[in-house]
Amino acid sequence: MPGPNAFERLHEAMIRGTEITLSPDDAELLFDLLNDEILDANVNFLQWGRRRERDRARLRPEPHYGPDQFISAAEMAEQHGVDYELFRTALQAANLPWHQDGESWTAGKVSPPHRDMLDVLEHLPANLTTLKHD
Which pLDDT value is given to residue 131? Predict the structure, then answer.
């Protein structure tokens, strides 16, 4: 640890705006302690920022969709020439966190769930997208 008076001398110099001379050992230890404090402050600030963004996202109101602003997986499959059963199986395999078992595959247009469904649709193998179920 720095000498017993190093902290007081540094504190006094900061208050008065004067310079002080520290021993090399005291200077190195104070430097290390200050760096640790700065690192801790940065980590705390980053964690605070992440919590703030998470809280903002949680408090952000969900968009309201009218009946004509929803799209089903069946409609998406038809629009893209994909077999609905194949698309639904791919959606189930994607294990999307927002979808509950037994719910219909319907999402508000241009919503995050809609984008997730489009991602699944776009990643279907090209040779399977033109097959139709009889």
Answer: 47
How is the chain split into domains, by residue range?
6-59, 67-128
CB count in 10 Å sphere of residue 120: 19
Mean pLDDT of the chain: 77
User: Cα-flanking dihedrals φ and ψ of residue 6, to 5°?
Assistant: -65, -45
Pick from 77, 91, 66: which is nearest to 132 by CA?
A: 77
**Higher-pLDDT residue of 25, 96:** 96
Distance CA 94, CA 100 (A): 12
Q: Which of 2-6, 66-70, 83-87 has the highest mean pLDDT?
A: 83-87
Secondary structure of residue 63 in the 3-state scheme: coil
Going by C-beta distance under 8 Å and a sequence separation of 6 or more, which residues neighbour residue 72?
Answer: 104, 105, 106
Phi-psi map region of 5: left, alpha, beta (phi>0 left; psi -120 to 50 alpha): alpha
